[in-house]
Amino acid sequence: MIKLAVFDFDSTLMDGETIEIIASEIGLQNEVAQITKKAMEGEIDFFDSLTYRVSLLKGIKKSRVDEICKNLPYMTGAAETISELKKMGYKIVCFSGGFENATEPAKDILRYDASFSNILHEIDGLLTGQAGGPMMYSDSKGQMLKKLQAIFNIKQENTIAVGDGANDLSMFKYAGTKIAFCAKPVLKKEATFCIEQKDLKLILEKLS
């Protein structure tokens, strides 16, 4: 019997928002942060917010983006929590409305099993301001979770979802245990558990 734990990346497995850190390269961190906040609180559509924020990154060197993404600050307890959940029989997957540039290097460090995230389009080594991928919409995480459960015959009661923002609501719908981690009010309302401290190891206490 397969058990599944799905984690959001930005502000959950990683302590911050990748797109804001990238935007700081061109002095647009505050503008991007304001849009991110509204999207995570469910005030604006996730797709619209993502495409606009990505458009602001046009012209940044992909090599610089990759360098930034290899040096992101991971959340306290992330690696330890993933390790312990694996010992409990869980497969660990990361769903991110962010980018492969960040989630793939993190997979090697945090040791989760797989990630689903978006791709920043580039031409001749420069970002074009466009992106695509499986996590572009507000319901993308829920749809992907439902597919994984069907493929691997994973029951809802054997599924944990951990996130912090409105675009995590759709995966909560298909999870037996819903954990809101330092989350926005819109997500807390739907949670089984809420964790208010930046330490993912507190998840293990809730599951014991």
Compact overview of the structure:
With 208 residues, the chain is of the alpha/beta class. Helices cover 40% and strands 22% of the residues. It is built from 10 helices and 7 strands.
Note the topology.
Blueprint (H helix, E strand, L loop, with lengths): L2 E6 L9 H6 L5 H12 L5 H10 L6 H8 L8 H10 L2 E10 H11 L3 E10 L2 E7 L7 H13 L6 E5 L5 H4 L4 E5 L3 H4 L4 E3 L6 H6 L1
Parallel strand pairs: 1-2, 1-5, 2-3, 5-6, 6-7
Antiparallel strand pairs: 3-4
Helix pairs in contact: 2-3, 4-6
Question: What does it look like?
Answer:
The chain is an alpha/beta fold. The chain has one domain: Rossmann fold (3-Layer(aba) Sandwich), CATH 3.40.50.1000. It has ten helices and seven strands. It has helices spanning 18-23, 29-40, 46-55, 62-69, 78-87, 100-110, 140-152, 169-172, 185-188, 202-207; strands at 3-8, 90-99, 114-123, 126-132, 159-163, 177-181, 193-195. A seven-stranded mixed β-sheet has the order 4-3-2-1-5-6-7. Helix 8 links the parallel strand 5 and strand 6. The two termini are 19 Å apart. The model has no long low-confidence stretch (mean pLDDT 97).
What keywords describe this structure?
single chain, 208 residues, alpha/beta, Rossmann fold, 10 helices, 22% strand, globular
For the CA atoms, what is the radius of gyration? 16 Å
Strands side by side in the biggest sheet? 4-3-2-1-5-6-7
Residue runs with pLDDT of under 50 for 5 or more positions: none
Q: Using DSSP, what is the number of strands?
A: 7
**Overall average pLDDT:** 97
Named at the architecture level, the CATH assignment is 3-Layer(aba) Sandwich
State the fourth-level CATH superfamily.
Answer: HAD superfamily/HAD-like
Domain module count? 1
The largest pleated sheet is described as: 7 strands, mixed
Secondary-structure element series: EHHHHHEHEEHEHEHEH
